[in-house]
Amino acid sequence: MKNFVILALGSNLGNRRRNIASALKKLSKISQVEKCSSIYRSPALVPKGSPRNWNKYFHNCIVAIFTDIPAYELLQKTQEIEKQINIIPRKKGSSGPRMLDIDIITFNNDEINTDDLVIPHPRISERSFVVYPLAEIEPEFKIKNKKISEIKKSLPDIKKLKFNPLIL
C-alpha cells in the first residue's frame, strides 16, 4: 500500500534553495514526489537567549509524497538525508541554524506519539511556514476539522518566493 505523507523542508544555512532541491532529489529516490509548494521565506524561531547569529531567515516548502516505507523507516531515511546535507554538525534536538531540516507533518491519517516520532506534527497550525505552503498544495487539508486555508487566515503572513524547488 502506498502511504500518503506530507513533509516540511527548511533551510537557513548555505545555499538554501540548493539544499532543498538536493533533499527533494534524494526524497525522489525513496518515494514518489506528488506535489511540492513554492518556497517561502520565514523568520527563524529561536529560543530566548540564543546566539544572535542563529536568527537567520529560513526557506521552507511542503512536499507531498507517496511511499511504501513505514513511518519509522521514513523517519530514519529523512534523518539520513539531513545528515548528508548538513555538513555542519549540530546537536540532536538543537534549534540552531541548519542546512536542512525535514519534518514528517502527516503520514496517512495515522496518529503516532512516541519519543522519536509524533504524527501529526503537534504544532502544524501554529506555524506560518508550514500552513502557507501546505494551503498552496492541499487547500482542503484539515487539522482538527478545520481547513488549512481557514487556519492560514489567523497566522502572520510570510513571503512566497518566486520559484518552485522541483524545477531548480
Defining key terms:
globular, 168 residues, six-stranded antiparallel beta sheet, alpha+beta
Structural commentary:
It is built from 4 helices and 10 strands. The chain has 168 residues and is of the alpha+beta class. Strand 6 (112-113) and strand 7 (118-119) form a beta hairpin. The N and C termini lie far apart (30 Å). The relative contact order is 0.24.
The DSSP helix count reads 4
- Percent of residues in helices comes to 25-40%
Helix and strand sequence: EHEEEHEEEHEEHE
The termini sit apart by 30 Å
The proportion of strand residues reads 25-35%
Instruction: Tell me the Rg in angstroms.
Output: 15 Å
| Biggest sheet character | 6 strands, antiparallel
Shape estimate: globular
Unreliable residue stretches: none
Set out the fold topology.
Layout: E1 3-11, H1 16-27, E2 32-36, E3 40-42, E4 58-67, H2 71-85, E5 101-107, E6 112-113, E7 118-119, H3 128-137, E8 142-143, E9 146-147, H4 148-152, E10 159-160
Antiparallel strand pairs: 1-4, 1-5, 2-4, 3-4, 3-10, 6-7, 8-9
Helix pairs in contact: 1-2
Summarize, please:
The chain has 168 residues and is of the alpha+beta class.
